[in-house]
């Protein structure tokens, strides 16, 4: 455990991974492909968010579940970026996610391997230890970030458990997950949620084929869950919708040279937290979060350019007001 002074954000990473990114120009399934390059990065959604926040200068901590057999990549990242490490080191190995990147077609194919299995007793022990870690750091923290899938054998309401504790401790919470864990956590009242369009459609049980439908879906979340202050729905190349209770904007994506799309959504989550820490209004939040994603797209691994470059990118983001009610 590597402490650091007054971390403002704690990112919980229950299902981290080593991201092995293999660049395969002209990738074709069912045949022999030749790779141009390969790299490994400490990853998983919560780790990616923490890495991008640290790049922007936000004092950040991580509480991850890491295997004792292969922690080196994570420990190196945490030390290099001065990310406080409150992780649980467990028997076994952290899983590997394989990313097949085809720069010619602009596609990324993900092959996510399963993580270690947990029995009921070990799950209960891990949850208790994580709750203790959050509580011990609460006096310094402002935001708790809950992002990513759950390991096999974990209860779907675990994020709800963390959110209820955060409420008791006076912390704000950003939620970025999907499926049953997303549905269970909503009732606990996170402050900010960031599904992508497919995840929101799956939760609502209907397709969201266009911008109007996506905006309506985001507003439905706000209407049915009183604790949520903002909903952000990422839509890939179509940009992202940022919705509060009185306003909504579409942030148009920046045209940048894409080195790797892996972790771009996590960079946007980091940008949302950075904007919240700065108390930015909705429009400036949309610009900064979009700039985080654009900056990450230009780099392999969960990394951002210098803060000044991110801020310059934010000034270039176009915003479109969306069917806002009169003030």
UniProtKB/TrEMBL annotation:
Residues 15-304 form the Carbohydrate kinase PfkB domain. It comes from the Bacteria. This is Phosphofructokinase. PANTHER family: 1-PHOSPHOFRUCTOKINASE, 1-PHOSPHOFRUCTOKINASE-RELATED. One of its GO terms (molecular function) is 1-phosphofructokinase activity. Keywords: ATP-binding, Kinase, Nucleotide-binding, Transferase. Pfam families: PfkB. Catalyzes the ATP-dependent phosphorylation of fructose-l-phosphate to fructose-l,6-bisphosphate. It catalyses: beta-D-fructose 1-phosphate + ATP = beta-D-fructose 1,6-bisphosphate + ADP + H(+). Belongs to the carbohydrate kinase PfkB family.
């Amino acid at each position: 455990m590597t402490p650091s002074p007054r971390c403002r954000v704690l990112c919980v990473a229950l299902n981290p991974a080593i991201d092995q990114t293999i660049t395969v120009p002209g990738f074709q399934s069912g045949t022999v492909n030749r790779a141009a390059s390969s790299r490994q990065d400490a990853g998983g959604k919560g780790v990616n968010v923490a890495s991008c926040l640290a790049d922007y200068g936000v004092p950040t901590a991580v509480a991850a579940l890491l295997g004792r057999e292969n922690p080196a990549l994570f420990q190196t990242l945490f030390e290099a970026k001065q990310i406080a490490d409150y992780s649980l080191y467990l028997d076994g190995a952290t899983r590997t996610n394989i990313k097949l990147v085809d720069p010619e077609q602009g596609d990324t194919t993900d092959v996510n391997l399963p993580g270690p299995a947990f029995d009921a007793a070990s799950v209960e022990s891990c949850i208790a230890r994580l709750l203790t870690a959050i509580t011990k750091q609460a006096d310094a923290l402002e935001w708790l970030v809950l992002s990513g899938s759950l390991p096999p054998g974990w209860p779907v309401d675990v994020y709800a458990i963390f959110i209820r504790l955060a409420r008791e401790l006076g912390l704000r919470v950003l939620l970025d997950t999907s499926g049953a864990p997303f549905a269970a956590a909503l009732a606990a009242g996170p402050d900010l949620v960031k599904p992508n369009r497919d995840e929101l459609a799956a939760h609502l049980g209907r397709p969201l084929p266009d911008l109007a439908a996506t905006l309506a879906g985001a507003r439905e979340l706000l209407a049915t869950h009183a604790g949520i202050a903002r909903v952000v729905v990422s839509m890939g190349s179509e940009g992202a919708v940022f919705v509060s209770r009185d306003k909504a904007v579409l942030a148009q994506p920046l045209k940048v040279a894409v080195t790797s799309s892996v972790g771009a959504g996590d960079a946007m989550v980091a940008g949302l937290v950075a904007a919240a820490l700065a108390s930015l209004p909705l429009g400036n939040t949309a610009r900064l979060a979009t700039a985080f994603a654009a900056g990450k797209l230009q780099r392999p691994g969960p990394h951002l350019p210098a803060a000044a470059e991110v801020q310059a990118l934010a000034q270039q983001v176009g915003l479109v007001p969306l069917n806002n009610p009169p003030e």
